[in-house]
Amino acid sequence: MPTRREEIIKLLEERELSLQSIANKFCVDLKEILEDIEHVEKSIRPKKLKRRHAECKNCGFVFKERSKIKKPSKCPRCKKEWIQPAVFRIE
């Protein structure tokens, strides 16, 4: 039986997903998925974990410079909390 991390790798090879979507699929807390993703990123080499950056739904600000995997809490430009989370895939 595959581990949760192995299943996450398989899912991300098939399609883009947000961390919350992955947490919902496995019925676990987002914090656990954050830990899993950090481990997956190291274990899939030479493949890469690609990210489509989080974006403010209000003003369109893209969080390109953000190194944290976790979703930002609010937009630095307009100060709204209406943030589209980053999505991940494996290539």
What does this structure look like?
- By secondary structure, the protein is α+β, with helices and mostly antiparallel strands.
- The chain has one domain (4-90).
- It is 36% helix and 15% strand.
- It contains 3 helices and 5 strands; from the N terminus they run αβααββββ.
- A 3-stranded antiparallel beta sheet has the order 1-5-2.
- The longest helix has 14 residues, at 30-43.
- It starts with a helix and ends with a strand.
Keywords:
91 residues; alpha+beta; 3-stranded antiparallel beta sheet; two-stranded antiparallel ribbon
Give helix and strand order, one letter per element, not per position: HEHHEEEE
- Overall shape: elongated
Q: Report strand %.
A: 15-25%
**Uncertain spans, ≥5 residues at pLDDT below 50?**
none
Average pLDDT figure:
95
Number of domains: 1
The N- to C-terminal Cα distance equals: 24 Å
Helix content: 25-40%
Described by strand count, sense and barrel closure, the largest sheet is: 3 strands, antiparallel
User: How many helical elements?
Assistant: 3
- Structural class comes to alpha+beta
**Assembly level:** single chain
Number of strands: 5
Strand ordering within the main sheet: 1-5-2
The radius of gyration is 14 Å
Condensed summary:
With 91 residues, the chain is α+β, with helices and mostly antiparallel strands. It has 3 helices and 5 strands; from the N terminus they run αβααββββ. The longest helix is centred in the middle third of the chain and has 14 residues, at 30-43.
